[in-house]
Amino acid sequence: MNSNYTVISKSSSIELQHLDNGIEIESPDHNGTLKERFEEEDFDELDDLPLIVDGSKHMACSDAGSGIPGAVFNLATSIIGAGIMALPATMKVLGLVLGFIAIVVMGVLSEISIELLVRFSNLSKSASYGEVVQSALGFPMRILSEICIIINNAGILVVYLIIIGDVMSGSPDHVGVFDQLFGHGIWDLRKLVILAMVVLFLAPLCALEKIDSLSFTSAASVALAIVFVVVSCAIAFVKLVEGRIAKPRMGPDFASKAAILDLLVVIPIMTNAYICHFNVQPIYNELKGRSPQKMNKVGRITTLLCVLVYFSTAVSGYLLFGADTESDVLINFDKDLGIQFSSILNYVIRIGYVLHLVLVFPVIHFSLRQTVSVLLFKEPLPQGRVKKLALTTALLGIIYLGSTMVPNIWVAFKFTGATTGLSLGFIFPCLIALRLDKQGVNLTRGERLLLWIMLSWALIVSIVGVVGNIYGLQSDSS
Fold first, then answer.
1. Directed axis angle between helix 428-437 and helix 129-137, to 10°?
2. Could you give the number of structural domains in the chain?
3. Residue 424 CB neighbour total at 10 angstroms
4. Model-level pTM?
5. Which residues form the Amino acid transporter transmembrane domain (predicted)?
6. Which own/partner contact pairs does 294-300 have at CB distance under 8 Å and 24+ positions apart?
7. Tell me: the pLDDT tens digits for 32-71?
8. Does the residue 58 lie in any domain?
9. Residues 388 and 272 in one domain
10. Residues 238 and 383 in one domain
11. pLDDT digits over 403-438, tens only?
12. What residue numbers bound the domain in which 29 lies?
């Protein structure tokens, strides 16, 4: 007779102990020593956890899902989005040397914080960013982290629509693709173009229920981003060889008050370009044969890919346009580049990157919808197709309205980078690790020192960035 049960050795034991603030569940190792601890403050959340897990089903779930390449594409797609378009402008502020250092350091620190999330999510058996925050910091901090995810992701998606509008319909100082191709008309109206993109292309992709379903589109989006990088680098190289590129600045500019203000807010903008932490757990959950080591490999490959793409884009964009580099470098590509096939390359770059954003959009929307659903309905995805579609439609409507009110991507990135971006990427992961370290997870002295340095740095940059943003707005209004 087949059985799904195995004999429990007499030397093994399971002990449940009541704590003042929750329940402690400890499991012995092979020597009978208690090693792992899970502490839960909210008793209601325990109702969602099964007491007995079917081993065969668990194995089936771990064998399904995406492999390392698919996970890399999904994580890279979460990172390489609108932030890449602001990097040439940050390079203009920082200069080539400091800009390169900042891109590498931000990438390394971001990868470290991703590994922290994976490590402590696995330890606390958390399936989402909010759950790992709750396991370490309590339920109120979970709510705060989920609000940060909503603000950050909604802001990113608003930026995507702003870029699509800038490219296809133009801006006050730049001509859009539709105007160049067909002349001015109703098809060139910015709000109408963005609405058509949302309804015809974004809504069907955002209605998908699993992030693994987006692996193919994520791979296509990364390929389109690489096409943009290769073409812009090739143009910059040709013009550099021909001696038609002005000498770039190596360091930051302290000559004016405006330049100093930009310097204060540029690091949060660059930090925001690496924020993908809200999608780490969903991607890890759907990783085939998942393990912390395998997810760490995904994070390292993704970080290396993103650092190369970001540096190439930032340098080529800055070399091409110099002091005239816009906050959204894509809109610089409406002019003659001074090389053969310039107009064709302009269209390839702009339309290709719009397609990239269309494919990235649903990946970011996935975690936004999941987080809103958890807050509203206490479940990662609303039950019932009508409720799912209603939530998706409502979120897309709010994002569309936001894209019609925010003036440009620099404004959006300045505030989200200094607040929610730094919180999700660095402040919460550091607090999680330091708190769980006190509950028996022994970090090394070097790890603990690095965590305190990262936490202090993130808090200082956040405060300086917010103050710089507010002062900049006051100066603009004056």
1. 40
2. 2
3. 26
4. 0.73
5. 67-466
6. 294/68, 295/71, 295/118, 296/115, 296/118, 297/68, 298/68, 298/71, 298/72, 298/75, 299/75, 299/111, 299/114, 299/115, 299/118, 300/111
7. 333 344 344 443 433 343 323 333 333 344 455 668 888 8
8. no
9. yes
10. yes
11. 888 777 767 777 777 788 889 989 999 999 888 877
12. 13-52
